[in-house]
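Page 47, continued from p. 46.
Same chain as before, 110 aa.
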Amino acid sequence: MKTIPQDYQDDWEAFCAACQEQGIPLFTLTQAVPPADLSILWTADEAQRFGAVPAGLEDNQLTVAMTDPRDADLVAALETRTGYHIFPVLAHASDVNAAIQRMTEFAAGI
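Result:
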């Protein structure tokens, strides 16, 4: 999985606050699989590598739940890859991992 920033590992609350100061909201992933029409954007293996899962699409803006929404290089790469404007939101690593597991199970028909 994508390396989690040290400040995230050291102090989740402070990391959340720093993200929110930068205008990045905290996003809580539900128990649902990412929407089927969005899960085709990248595989569960890629989601693991990115530390990011697609969470919603409105107009031309793709909401992406990420373990490090401050990663401008990843945001730019996802915009290039998908053709959508990426709206990065912070999600706890355990939520992202659970969503990736659900993506894997859904793809396998479990």
